[in-house]
Every structure is written in structure tokens, then in C-alpha cells.
Amino acid sequence: MRYGYQPPFQLSKLLLVPTAPLPPFSLSSSLHFCSISPHHQRSSFGIAFDIDGVVLRGRIPIGNSPTALKRLYNDSGNLKIPFLFLTNGGGIPESRRAFELSELLGVKILPSQVLQGHSSFRSLLERFENDFIVATGRGEPAEVMSEYGFKNVISMEDYVSYFDNIDPVAHYKGWSRKVASKKPTYSTKSIQGFDDSLSGVKAAFVISDPVDWGRDIQVLCDILSSKENEHQPPLYFAADDLQYQAAFPSKRLGIGAFRIALESVFNRIHSKPLECTVFGKPKLFVFRNAEVILRHLRAFSCDGDVTREDGHLPLYGFKALYMIGDNPSVDIKGASQAGSPWFSILTRTGVFRQRENHAEYPADLVVDTVEQAVEYILERECAS
Ligand SMILES: [Mg+2]
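Above: query sequence and magnesium ion SMILES. Below: predicted holo C-alpha cells.
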């Protein structure tokens, strides 16, 4: 399989500000308390929180996350410290996720504070804006892509409903029968390029964990091999997490497990290996994007509007950017690869549970909970 990616957007030279390396520290430095709170240092740092296994397990807050997040706001409820959620999860538009997170965590989250695995698909709009594309995954894959501006997108659910017997075991699936009794959300008349030969699909997008692996592997194999002697249509994954921490006590198979399953089957039945492009953490551009968004949050939400006269953001960068995650091979690996000013903090509330630091992708700091992580950051930055 060949991997590749395109950066979601070009970083201007203005945004690539060299920053001073972080001072060395040890775990014991978390015991150091600052006695001063200089105002000018308040926004010299930013924080990226993973969601699953760090602030939530399923829909239940964990690690005292509501209390920890409240510390990043002032008494009036306005953002004091720039932070965002950097998750490989998804399935619903960022605006809806922000609303949902606000309800669950008790603080006001802006849509711009939510970076999901599929958020980077916006960078492909220019290429596929008017093409007929199929999107799959739990949640509302077509709505997500439509909100990004893709004009001719259909969900896998609706797409398969136009083909008789495309899934030979569909009638054994209780949930599938319920779906089949519904009319598709989209009219094919409004979707340019639609045809029922499986060959009209210009690209396929897996935006989150597919609900029906068997059906999706079958139909993606159909779509991706529909044009004989032609190159395979592009296939994009929002992330590649093998496992993640959901509501069930032990880890669950993620979108990366689905990618392996699809690839294994496809490569057994086709002579040319599957080609796909994977987005999400730990890709470097995800962390670069997060930095850009944190700078915007700092400029427009924390410090008031501090754009320069020429309309650009101020030149000063962050002294530190903290990634708080539970998955060493995704959150910690990504932050380590991004390098300074990123600083990785691993919690023990999700995928990772060990006493000692992770051997392959060691974090800069290991804590039990997200609350401890925020406590450490605020002490270190003298901003408590
Ligand atoms: Mg996680």
C-alpha cells in the first residue's frame, strides 16, 4: 500500500515562527509552584486535548475533565488559555461536536476549537468539490462532507440503497432492514455524476469507524475496482487508529483496523495493491494546523482582536504547546515528531494504563488524569 498526504493548507511564512527550545525538566519539576502570574505570559502557551480516553469515555467525562477545563476560562466564562480538541474521532460536523462537548463538559466550546480526523478533508475541496463522491463511517458522513462544501456527496448507506442485492446478507441485519425501509436522504437527480454501474464514483472517504464492516469492504472493493485498466479512484481515511478507548472497559478496534481489513481483502482479490491516503494524528500537518488554529484562538478569543495593521496575526509564536493524549502511537508520537514547541503528556485513563512511560513513544510527562496534566501546565506556565 502506498501512503501519502497533502498538507491541509499552506502555512504562510508569517506563521512559521522559530521558537525557543523548551527548558529541560523532570517529573519532579511538577512539584515546583510558581508564585507569580505575569499577565504577558498567559497566552505564551496553548493546549491540545485528545477526547476519547482523556476527557470522555463514551459520553461520560473522565479524569475530572470539566473541572480541569474550567480553569482555562476566566470568571466571566471567556477563554483565558487557548486550547482545542485534537481528535481522530468524528462523524458529525464540528459545530455539532462543539455543542455536544459544551453540554457534556460544562464549558462553552467553539466549533473552531474542534479539530476532528476528517477536518483535514477540507483541503481536498478544490479537487473534488463537484465530483460524485461516497462517504462512509458512523454518524453523518454525507452531512460532514456537505458542510465542508463537497457538492455531490452521498453516504454509503444511501448509495447501497440504489442497488438490489449489493449486500447478499443484508436481510440478516436488523438495523439494515430499518434503514432499507427509509427512503434515501438524497435524490440522485440532485447528485451530478451518479450512475448505478459503480464506476461513477470519483473518490471514497472513510470519515469515521464504519458501522457495517462487511458491507463497506464489499462495496468499497466494488467501487475501487470498477474501472478496468484504469487507476483506482482515490480512497481517503480520516485517521488510522488501530484501537481506541470507548465506553467498554477494554480497547475497541478503530478505523485503522478497518483499513487493514479492507486492504487485506482487496489485495487478495486484485493484482494491484490498494492505494489510500491517511489523515489524522500522528501526521505532522495535523499538529501544524493545530498550532495555526491555536494562534487564531489566542488572537481573537483570548487576547481580543490583536491582528496587525496588515491583517496578519502577530509574529510571536508559542513558547510551549501541550498535547494531552492517551494513545502513545498517535498522540505522543505525533507531538514528538512535531518537535518544539510541542510537549507531550500521556494520561492513564485510556489506551495507555502502565505505570512506567511508554517504551517506544515515551511522553515528556506521564500523569494519571487530564486534571493532573492541566494542573502541571498551569504551574509550569505560572498561569494558575
Ligand atoms: Mg484517545
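The first strand starts at residue 45 and ends at 49.
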